[in-house]
């Protein structure tokens, strides 16, 4: 059986540059596809253990999830940690959503040493609402994901910036209630705020309080302390970190350079030669002084000068030294 271009093991006869690309299953976008499938397999009986397993499969232990959007009272930005991520996804379905999936278009990938960043400027979060009425909501924005570069390829950071949203109501429902103005008025009202349900928004507001309390909760779970004792311990440790002086940077030990033997010997030789020359010059000077004083008795310590400048700068005047040590003025 001959291989065809649709065969995954097909190799082009035109060389390595015409071989098929790497399957998209190893790309980060496939992880979003797997996450969509896992969300579709959710049932009404899915409990907290199911959501914890979902977060463990797709998010790192130190992962963070950030949502940015603008409401009527101004821009909002919420960041939650790994322990609060499972509850975030569950609140989406508790607000009347029956289906949730993400669509990425024209995303850009950048590879780093230990992570892969996916930047999608045209991301859509699609939610299907069954109550209070059948509505499809498309929330559009920019999604930036950072995956770990390993076999699990889990999400380390999730940042979704919402720009706009649309709520779509089927025409069949409008036709059914065309004669009922009250139902039409209810259908014309939005059921979400920037594509998020009230359950999700209330949970994000609550996370502002819960996120700083994660340290207290983990300490209570680990050491089985009372809430008051956990608070005292955390405050004391934080006070210690504030009072403790900053750690001094470690200094590298200075290495002593060894002197070369040749340079040492040459230096010693030159110093010895200089010392010998200075000693020889001193001996010569002493010998000259001794010979001069021995040849001229009575000269003593008189300077050995035969001519001195005359007085008042007169070059014709000079002073001569007699053998008896007396000065005689000559003109």
From TrEMBL:
- Pfam families on file: LIM_bind
Q: Where is the composition biased (Low complexity)?
A: 263-280
Residue spans of biased composition, Polar residues class: 286-296
User: Where are the annotated segments for Disordered?
Assistant: 244-331
Superkingdom of origin organism: Eukaryota
Provide the protein name: LIM domain binding 2
**UniProt source species:** Bos indicus x Bos taurus (Hybrid cattle)
